[in-house]
Design brief:
Length: 48
Amino acid sequence: MTDIAARRTGLHARTGGPSDGEDHLLEQLLGWSLVVVLALLTTQLGLF
């Protein structure tokens, strides 16, 4: 399929990056939770 035909049919390549859906808040909460857990773990182990 040519580039022009792909644009006309609306096909887009998925790169595996973040989507524009409603999961944005959930991704943010999970990301910050991971940061907090890693920070607690490193302080408990005396790494920092």
